[in-house]
Design a protein that fits this description.
The structure is a homotetramer. By secondary structure, chain A is mainly alpha-helical. In chain A, 53% of the residues lie in helices and 6% in strands. A two-stranded antiparallel sheet of chain A has the order 1-2. Chains in contact: A-B, B-C, C-D. Chain C binds chain D through residues 10-12, 15, 22-23, 25-27, 63, 65, 79-83, 85, 90-91, 93-101, 103-110, 112, 115-116, 118-119, 122-123, 127-128, and chain D through 2-4, 6, 9-12, 15, 20, 23-24, 27-29, 85, 90-91, 93-95, 97-110, 112, 115-116, 118-119, 122-123, 127-128. The structure holds a DNA duplex.
Chain lengths: 131, 131, 131, 131
DNA sequence: GTGGTCTAGACCACA
DNA sequence: GTGGTCTAGACCACG
């Protein structure tokens, strides 16, 4: 399950799915012909309404990113060249994500050093668990 | 007026203002005590309704990022999240930010190892620069 | 619909709704998980604009008193302030409430000693009852 | 200085002064002919704009509760019988204030026992001070 | 001048 | 059906 939904972000849930899927295809994480999780399975996994997933898939199909075949499922469409991201572009986007993390950490009152240490722990040990 | 609104992004306008202001404060572009543009001036500059700007400012105020003084204007507040929120809550929110970063990195086609290496570089050397 | 609005009090309508809901939750009149009237239904019942009710609900949500689920409605949340706010902040806010009580008692002509005695009675015997 | 202003309450500052003064007169804390603090002194003490105090005083005069004599100051007017509160009414209002305190304490996550203990400390030792 | 509240009403997101 | 966003514009509170 590699989707991540933030219900407090203000961005519609269906758009979050749309954007994450579109980016994964553009980055080559999802390859042509590969099958996406079924609407029902993804809705269950994300604990959201199936209509919301369906909406995201419809928009993805409308934009030519996936193909929906009734009775079979949703599949990544043949990739258009202009949708593929260069390594430079991928690095640029990742750096933007780093920046967003730094902003969050700042406003949560963490110093850059604390952020670094906590990230280290997080990446090696995984999310903190209660108990 | 360094705000810019993207009406095609799907993110509510008031949230775009909120995020940009938050980012500007974290980056030191807006300093403690500094005055933000008036609600009406910013609304005019961005060609949006003053209520939308007011909403953004109110959210910024309730998150402790700015202080609004009636009849005077909006000013960048001193940072204080670490005094208001419990450490558990602050860690919980930071971990959520970590999750978002991990998901985005995955969707950009980076492996956890690459992410870790790139973060290491980023945190020690600062943002990558073109050229 | 046990809300009532006093348009002559000077207190904003949205705040009156906020305070009454908060009080109802504290008193156990509204229990965890219970659904509040829909924004539109309450607005109609109180003969006010739906936006005003929505504002009250949003403030209640950001203070962790209710949870709003799009397309479903507003529900009383589980209490969790003690998990989000630091103990220092909670004590600070409680002390402010003490101050307000002291001022009001003074303005009602009670001495600090009377206040203390009456509080003692109140806290041990519960609210005074007529008769 | 027996006024207490809550700038976060949403109730206009001038109204808070008005209500507190009116109640003090009604309860007999302020007696006929007694002088109120000057506009300038009160504004300084409460760290608010003198115009705001002046506005409160004007409303108090308009309602016959005080008399403003240019060059001399503001004085409590002869009390109208209907403005005087019975002991029963004063107790009723104090009980309401107790209730408001309990609601606050509840939502801040304090148990009734904690509230009682903290109140005891507060009333005997005064507000907690840093250090 | 500043921001705050409220209304009326359009249109969107989501179940 | 639910709530969310935005607009246009009136009127108030405050400096």
């Amino acid at each position: 399950m590699w989707f991540h939904i933030d219900t407090t972000s203000g961005t519609p849930v269906y758009l979050q799915i749309y954007q994450q899927a579109k980016q994964a295809v553009a980055a080559g994480v999802l390859r042509s012909g590969e099958q996406l999780p079924s609407v029902r399975a993804l809705a269950e996994g994300l604990v959201i309404n199936p209509n919301t997933v369906a909406r995201a898939y419809q928009e993805l199909e409308r934009d030519g990113i996936i193909e929906i075949i009734r009775g079979k499922g949703a599949f990544v469409a043949a990739r258009k060249a202009e949708l593929v991201l260069s390594r430079e572009e991928r690095l640029r986007r990742l750096t933007e994500a780093f920046e967003r993390l730094k902003v969050e950490a700042y406003h949560l009152g963490f110093t850059p050093e604390e952020l670094r240490d906590l990230l280290e722990v997080y990446l090696t040990e995984g999310p903190a668990r209660p108990g």
